[in-house]
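Sample entry (171 residues):
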Amino acid sequence: MREDDYSVFSGSEIFRDLDHVQIGKILGIARVVKFRAGEVILREGDIGDTMYIMKEGTVEVIKNLVLVEIEDSEDRKKTKVFTKLEAKDHAVFGELALLDAMKRTATVRAVTDCVLYEINRADFLKLAEEDCKLGYRVILNLAKIIGARLRKADEETVKLTTILSIVLSEV
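Predicted structure, serialized as tokens:
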């Protein structure tokens, strides 16, 4: 195992507290994929079965802000770039795909040329069954990540509801 590969995984929140051998096992199921600047890596609404760990580059996370399409016109679609993720931060995305075949919640597009590690759900689940301690740790870390995101989403919902309530009370 190369040291730079190890540092990418050991620095990632989802693989926190895994030992050298366990990270080696994760690297064994990861495959390196490359995307050019501007390419879509995953698309909101598509069913996903892979997660990505960033080795090199920058991506942007884009969310569709229209829940109901009134017209079937691309130029009417509202989107917002929610965040940029960088390899230097050991960023991971698409990790919910490790749990279930769900629709992607956002689009991720390469801002720069990117080198990513891709992990398939079936390969991860097989590994987690073979090494229950590894599986437990990754799923626990994933639960912590999801919990933090839910708390943040709840705070944002309260803020938006408060603003909407104030605006509507002034009408």
